[in-house]
Structures are given as structure tokens and as C-alpha cells.
């Protein structure tokens, strides 16, 4: 694995761990837990999809898994926005995590476009 791939893999794992810590810190009220579980699911499955993509058996499989990862990362951004909009977590606390989500999405879009030859 190249250094850039190792760096991205570490960044994605760090992202998933931040999502886990966010979930653990959420209030135990129903709405917070429902939105939190959605965020937890999408934020941690994104990394699993990246790992599967990096181990893809073909270019088509790689592209498909990167697409799955993009979908999960986009969904994570949505749930983070809802946590902020519903004032469950202060916006300023979520801003660094949202920024990281958007940066990861940008990286994935670039990877996907290059893999497809766009």
C-alpha cells in the first residue's frame, strides 16, 4: 500500500473513531439516540467500504465500493447536519467533524473520477 493510501486509511479510521466518540457523548433522549445511531452506522461503515474498495478484485469492483463509501459519507454529513439543526449538538462542536466529512467526500470524488477515467 502506498503512503497516500495508508494516510487516507488512517484518516478514515480516525474519522470513524470520532463518530463513535460523538455517539457515546450524545444525550440519552430518543431523538438524539436515533439520529446518533444513524450517524454511527453511516460514519463507521464508510471506513469498511473503503477497506473493501482497496481490496477490490477489479477496477469495476473498486469503483462500486468507492461509490458505496461516497454514499455513506454523504449520509453521515446529513445526519451530522440534523444533529446540529435540532440543537442536539452545538454547531461549533460539529463543525470540525463536518469539515472532515466534506474533505473525505472531496477526496473520494477525485478518486472515483480518476478510477473511471473522467
State the end-to-end CA separation. 24 Å
Structural class: mainly alpha
How many separate domains? 1
Number of strands: 0
Strand and helix order: HHHH
User: Would you identify the CATH H-level superfamily?
Assistant: 23S rRNA-intervening sequence
Radius of gyration: 15 Å
Taken as a percent bin, the fraction of beta residues is under 5%
For the record, the CATH architecture stands as Up-down Bundle
CATH topology: de novo design (two linked rop proteins)
How many distinct helices?
Answer: 4
Quick check: average pLDDT?
Answer: 91
Q: What overall geometry do the principal axes of the alpha carbons give?
A: elongated
Structural features, described:
The protein has 118 residues and is mainly alpha-helical. The protein contains four helices and no strands. Helix 1 runs antiparallel to helix 2 (30-54), helix 2 runs antiparallel to helix 3 and helix 3 runs antiparallel to helix 4. The longest helix is centred in the middle third of the chain and has 27 residues, at 59-85. The two termini are 24 Å apart. The model has no long low-confidence stretch (mean pLDDT 91).
